[in-house]
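Subject: for your reference before the review

Hello V.,

The reviewers asked for a structural picture of the protein, and I figured it would be easier to keep everything in one thread rather than splitting it across files. Below is the amino acid sequence we used in the manuscript, unchanged from the supplementary table.
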Amino acid sequence: MKKTIAMFLSALALTFLASCGVDAAASVAGVYELDTAEMKKAMAVEGADKDPMAKMMMGMLDSMKGSIELKAGGTCELVMSAMGKETKEPGTWKLDGDKLTVTSKKDGKEETKVGKLADGCITVEEGEGPAKMTMVLRKKK
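And here is what came back from the structure prediction:
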């Protein structure tokens, strides 16, 4: 009898956990837009003003727009436009705690990016030293 009750409670707990996962996916679903002002601040702090390539990148940020739409079903679409050219990439996403993993196809090759999702912001860091770049995307209201 005790075993039966324990199994029932375990199944009930798993049901609640599964439904929490669905709710979490639904709550983070939405469009997140690139915050270029935040990128400029991060690049300035990381010493980009001393690197010619980084200086050029800071200038390009004014014409750059980007977003990612996380859909409740675990799919996503990345959109990036710069200097009059727009690219769209379909993909998938997975959230484990605050760790967001996005996999997309770029030029026929799979590309995976890992970032942090917290308080309606996705933060992704790439590169090292002067080439290090921090991208912040904020959830569109």
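For the response letter, the relevant points are probably these. The CA atoms of residues 104 and 110 lie 6 Å apart. Residues 29-139 form a domain with the Lipocalin fold (CATH 2.40.128.300).

Happy to draft the paragraph if you're swamped.

O.
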